[in-house]
Amino acid sequence: MRHLISPLDFSAEELDQLMDLASDIEQNPKKYAHVCDGKKLATLFYEPSTRTRLSFEAAMLNLGGSVIGFASADSSSASKGESVSDTIRIISCYADICAMRHPKEGAPLVASLKSSIPVINAGDGGHQHPTQTLTDLMTIRSLKGRLGNMTVGLCGDLKFGRTVHSLINALVRYEGIRFVLISPRELRVPDYIRDNVLEANHIPYTEVESLDQAMPQLDILYMTRVQRERFFNEEEYIRMKDCYILDKSKMALGKKDMLVLHPLPRVNEISVEVDDDPRAVYFRQVQYGVYVRMALIMTLLEVAPC
To answer: Do 35 and 60 touch, CB atoms closer than 8 A?
Structure first.
């Protein structure tokens, strides 16, 4: 039995196989409509979510399975003090696989150690968000035709953004990757990412504060929002939240084949006027997320079409 707690739980070769499966699901959805008949997915979301939770639910329903679970800690026995370890033991009696989002870093890992069903980390604090990373990789590979030999700009909240941390961890395994890290000084990537991932793997990167300066060199621009829930000080959040706003004037500085991704939800860091630009692919990214989660559920449950 396997779990997905970190993007590194799958080798680069296994990720390619997963994305190949997701591509086939995109092309032949009817072929996969019953592969999870009789299977149940439990969505254990201790933190609010729209896209990730509904994407998992849509993925399982598309595969012919069913879904149980809760959408907030308040509606679970966590409100009575039940531990994650006890909850997963109970859920293992009800479901065949589970997706867990939790505000505490490491909670899905703790669950996986006590679970008798596969556990998928759907986001743990500011740490990891591996299925968003699978979605990002699928989007880039599908629209660029490759995952290596490109310059990737990561913009916004690089300190608390778990999607950014997971994506960096995944992309460093591909040849020819270069990063431009675009953020205010206060929201730069954590030292452990810089030292243990970028420096340790000899990945070329630059840290800049100007989005305009970075735009002309980017093949991928990955925008993130400045997250209020990750700040301890409301004044700091208000001061930082409008630092980087992508609009038509900034898009004009980018390459004609650059892609703009965003894990969503956005607040105002991407102007709505950008939505009609063919390089803006963040809504297509959402659809790729369903396909890749379908492929992941199948892989962890070891099921295949007849």
So the answer is: no
pTM attached to this predicted model: 0.90
CA dihedral 172, 7, 264, 285 (to 10 degrees): 80
Q: Which amino acid is at 203?
A: I
64 burial type by CB count under 10 A (0-12 exposed, 13-18 middle, 19+ buried): middle
Q: Among the residues of the chain, which ranges form H helices? A: 12-27, 51-62, 84-91, 107-114, 130-144, 162-171, 191-193, 211-214, 234-240, 248-251, 282-301
Q: Residue 108: which of 65, 149, 147, 166 has the closest Cα?
A: 166
Phi/psi at 30 (5° precision): -65, -30
pLDDT band, very low/low/confident/very high, at 226 (cuts 50, 70, 90): confident
Residue 59: strand, helix, or coil: helix
Catalytic residues: 51-52, 80, 101, 129
- Joined together, the tokens standing for residue 285 give 């990214």
106: left (phi over 0), alpha (psi -120 to 50) or beta: left
Strands 220-223 and 97-102: unpaired
Closest residue by Cα to residue 154 from 292, 52, 260 = 260
3-state secondary structure of 258: coil
DSSP H/E element including 181: strand 177-182
What integer pLDDT is reported at residue 111 of this predicted model? 96
C-beta of residue 129 within 8 angstroms of C-beta of residue 166? yes
Give tens-digit pLDDT for 181-219. 999 888 899 999 999 999 999 999 999 989 999 999 999
Comparing CA positions, the residue from 298, 292, 301, 299 lying closest to residue 52 is 292
Beta bridge partners of 70: 44
- Location of structure tokens 């965003």: 262
What tens digit of pLDDT does each residue of 75-112 get? Answer: 666 666 789 999 999 999 999 999 999 989 899 999 99
- Other C-beta atoms closer than 10 Å to the C-beta of 44 total 28
